[in-house]
Prior knowledge:
Blueprint: H1 8-44, H2 52-83, H3 86-108, H4 129-133
Amino acid sequence: MEALNMDKPTAEKIMAVRHKSIMERKTLQKKIAQDFQKVRELLREDSSRVTDDALAGLLQDIRDNRVKIQGLFDEYYNELSKLLSIRQQAELMLFLKDFHNEIRAGLRSANPPGLQYDKNMTPPPSPTRREMRRSPLQPGNAN
């Protein structure tokens, strides 16, 4: 917030708007994940018992919730525009874009810095979701 030259009350208002937006987005993302799981389950079942209408309804729900998520981003920026000057809005947008790009780049990098694989080497396998969720401090994860 220092980079945007704003006072503490304004920063607190922005954090409240951000928190509300994040919570609503997470709720929708959870619904989308549940709908994808239902689609997987339906596709695994005997095809004679699964109706196209059931699949179509789930797919429509996924699309609708994705549209709602985009609407939340629009609402978030509309709320911010009421609290920040144009310059602060521009600085915030650039900060968030750069921050997210740095996070994505760090996550995408499967190779540790300085380690190069030659064409005959294969990189180590990516961890499964279950492995990623396990804390390194849990029993059985000691190195």
